[in-house]
Amino acid sequence: MKVTIVKSFIRFASACVVALVLSVAHAGAQTSTKGARAQKEEAARPAPWAGCFYEAVGGRPKGIEEFENFFVRSFPGQPVSGGLITKTSNLVHTFSKVEVTGDRLTFTTLARRGVTYSFEGQLLKKSESDEGGDALRDRARAAVAEGTLRKHRRGKQIAEARVRLGCGEAGEGVD
Fold first, then answer.
1. Does residue 131 register a pLDDT over 70?
2. Which residues contact 154 (CB under 8 A, 6 or more apart)?
3. pLDDT the model gives residue 107
4. Which of 20-34, 46-60, 108-122, 157-171 has the lowest mean pLDDT?
5. How far apart are CA 25 and CA 75, in angstroms?
6. Which of 51, 89, 46, 47 is nearest to 67 (CA)?
7. What was the pLDDT predicted at 174?
8. pLDDT value at position 147?
């Protein structure tokens, strides 16, 4: 009789352990599914920098006067890409590295004729920007972002400028 009670207790305890393990595994699977779903939704949203040609507000940056604008492309399920356009040659310096983290953007371009550009900056909050109300027609002249633009020749930095950027359209110009 004692042996039967002990065996029954062991079976009961084993069943409880199995049930506990299964419930923990199920909860973990739900959590990872929610995490994967959130990651999928995040990937489906365009990067906050997408949709504009970012041009310097208030004139060309000193030492980088050839800077025309840069743009960021973001499509669901695709890596973020973009390029920087120069006024003097209309060359597109394609991004070799780009990182969008929230409202922050960092990029480096591929070398063209030995020259690369890099940028580190952030979008401005509505209260920090020069944009007022519904000034859509003037948004290229209103700063919506700011950061540091650098020019490099053969790997050596030759110019650096702090820039405030407006959101314009190709060829619009904000001088």
1. no
2. 114
3. 97
4. 20-34
5. 35
6. 89
7. 41
8. 97
Q: Which helix (H) or strand (E) holds 71?
A: strand 67-73
Report which of 86, 99, 92 is spatially closest to residue 60, judged by C-alpha positions: 86
One-character DSSP codes across 151-167: EEETTEEEEEEEEEEEE
Contacts of 157-160 with CB under 8 Å at 24 or more apart are: 158/63, 159/61, 159/62, 159/63, 159/64, 160/63
Residue the block writes with tokens 């969008």: 100
**Residue 137 CB coordination number (10 Å):** 7
**Percentage of residues of the chain with pLDDT beyond 70:** 61
Can you give the residue ranges of every domain in the chain? 1-44, 53-168
This prediction has a pTM of 0.66
Coil, strand, or helix at residue 67? strand
Q: How far is CA 68 from the centre of its chain?
A: 21
